[in-house]
Design brief:
globular, about 20% strand, Nucleotidyltransferase, domain 5, six-stranded mixed beta sheet, two-stranded antiparallel sheet, about 40% helix, 8 strands, alpha/beta
Length: about 210
C-alpha cells in the first residue's frame, strides 16, 4: 500500500482539518480559523479565509481530501443555512485551487463503519482508541471537531477504496498501523495504549 497524505474535513465554524501523513507517521490538526465580528448588536463568527488558504497551502501536496457531506439541520434558519453553505464552498474552492481531489462521505457512513458510539463524546472516544498517541489533540469537550476531522480522514484511508483492496483483512492491518502515529504538534514518543501486540490485534479483530 502506497504512503499517502490524506485530509479529513469536518466543515462548520466549530470544525477542523486533519492531515494524516503515512510517510512521516504524523497527524496534524488545524481548527477552522475564525474571526469574531460585530453584526448588528451581536458578535458573529466568520471564517478567516486567508488563514485557511495558508493552512491548506502548507498541507499540500495532498493525495485526497475527504469531506463530510452534511445538509441542513432541524431548526436551522435560512441565514444559518446560507452561512454554512458559504463556508463549505470556500473550503472546497481553496482545496480545488490547490489541485486537491475531494470525495464526500455522510456522517452516518463514517460513524457506522468506524463503530463510533452514540453520545456527545463518541467521536473523541473513538479517535482516542484508534490513535491513542494523539489523544491530547481532542482532550477537551470543545475539540470534537478535531476528533471528527481525524475520523473522516481515517475513514477515507480505510474504507474509501481509493488506496487499498478495501477488504476486511486490509482494514484490520491498516487500522492497527494507526496506533504509532505521532501528534506533529509535540512530536512526543507515542504510547500504543495496549500492553501487548496480541492485545491490540485481538481488539481490532473484534472491532472491525
Amino acid at each position: 500500500m502506497r504512503k499517502l497524505r490524506i485530509l479529513g474535513v469536518d466543515p462548520g465554524l466549530s470544525g477542523a482539518l486533519a492531515l494524516i501523513d503515512d510517510n512521516k507517521r504524523t497527524l496534524e490538526v488545524f481548527d477552522m480559523p475564525l474571526f469574531e465580528l460585530k453584526r448588528g448588536k451581536k458578535n458573529k463568527r466568520e471564517i478567516d479565509i486567508h488563514s485557511l488558504a495558508r493552512c491548506v497551502k502548507r498541507f499540500v501536496p495532498i493525495d485526497m481530501a475527504f469531506f463530510e457531506k452534511v445538509g441542513a439541520m432541524p431548526g436551522q434558519g435560512v441565514t444559518g443555512m446560507f452561512q454554512f453553505g458559504r463556508l463549505v464552498g470556500i473550503v472546497e474552492g481553496i482545496l480545488y485551487a490547490n489541485k486537491v481531489p475531494i470525495d464526500y462521505v455522510s456522517p452516518r457512513k463514517w460513524r457506522s463503519d468506524l463503530k463510533v458510539r452514540q453520545g456527545k463524546d463518541g467521536s473523541r472516544e473513538r479517535a482516542s482508541t484508534l490513535m491513542p498517541s494523539c489523544a491530547e489533540i481532542w482532550s477537551r469537550k470543545k475539540d470534537v471537531g478535531r476528533a471528527e476531522a481525524t475520523l473522516i480522514a481515517i475513514h477515507g484511508k480505510l474504507f474509501s477504496g481509493f488506496f487499498s483492496e478495501n477488504n476486511k483483512d486490509s482494514e484490520k492491518k491498516d487500522a492497527r498501523s494507526l496506533v504509532d502515529f505521532k501528534s506533529k504538534k509535540d512530536n512526543q514518543t507515542p504510547l500504543a495504549g495496549f500492553s501487548s501486540m496480541k492485545e491490540m490485534e485481538n481488539f481490532y479483530n473484534f472491532k472491525f
